[in-house]
Amino acid sequence: MRTIELPASEISLHAAGLFNVQFAITNIGRATARELLVNYIFPGLNADQLTIAPGAPAIQSHPLHGKPFWVLKIDHIHPEDTNYQVLAVHVPVTTPAIEIEYEVSMADAPARSGSLRVKLG
Description:
Blueprint: E1 10-13, E2 18-26, E3 33-41, E4 50-52, E5 59-61, E6 68-77, E7 82-90, E8 97-106, E9 109-120
C-alpha cells in the first residue's frame, strides 16, 4: 500500500511583517503519484493576509467554517519530482507564530492530515 509522509510539525523563521512560505510537494516514492489534492487551512488569519503567486489557485473561504482555504490540485508527480508553491503572508511583526492545517490525498492512498506551526522571531 502506498502512503503519504507528513512534513515536520514546526519550522522557525525570522520575525517580519511580510514573509514567504514555500510549499514543496515531493514524490519520494517509486511510482508516479496521481490525482493529488492538497488542502491548506489557515486558522487565525484572514484571506487578505495571504497573497498567492500569479497563476496559482485562489484562496477561498472554507465552506464549513469560513477560514482561509487553499486547494492545490496536481494531476501527477513523478518519482523524485517536486511541485513548488509560494504564499506570501502578511502579519504584524509581533505575531509569535502561525498555524497551517493540511490534508493530502491521492488516487491510491489513504488521506493524511496534520498541522504545521511556523514560529516567527
